[in-house]
Amino acid sequence: MRRARVGELNLRFAIERPVDAADDIGGASRTWASVATVWGRLETLGGEAAFIAQRPETQGPHRIVIRWRPDVTAALRLRLGARVFVINAATDADGRRRFLRLQCDEIA
């Protein structure tokens, strides 16, 4: 893959972290809180359509490239408008701490 350029990071992603809160019946509910917003590039690597509960749900690999951040891990997720991407892996391909390549799956 070719090297990312800052000018190609033209989409605004929200980085979100999970927040678990106890509910009244002894369980927990998970919500997501925004950590930061970053500029990035989205690349669709392929995919397949699945039907869950009679509605189409997109599944498939995506690569999202953002500027390097030390706090981005697979415990977080990204949001682009109504689209949500779970992070499977985060790599600094050239080791220079310039860009992070995030391997993600989109969920509905």
Fold topology:
Layout lengths: L10 E12 L5 E17 L3 E5 L2 E5 L1 E7 L9 E4 L2 E9 L7 E9 L1
Antiparallel strand pairs: 1-2, 1-6, 2-5, 3-4, 5-8, 6-7, 7-8
Tell me what the structure shows:
This protein is an all-beta fold. The protein has one domain (8-107): Thrombin, subunit H (Beta Barrel). 0% of the residues lie in helices and 63% in strands. The chain is built from no helices and 8 strands. The protein has strands at 11-22, 28-44, 48-52, 55-59, 61-67, 77-80, 83-91, 99-107. A 6-stranded antiparallel β-barrel has the order 1-2-5-8-7-6. A two-stranded antiparallel sheet has the order 3-4. A hairpin with a 2-residue loop joins strand 6 (77-80) and strand 7 (83-91). It is elongated and about 50 Å long. The chain starts with 10 loop residues before the first strand and ends with a strand. The model has no long low-confidence stretch (mean pLDDT 86).
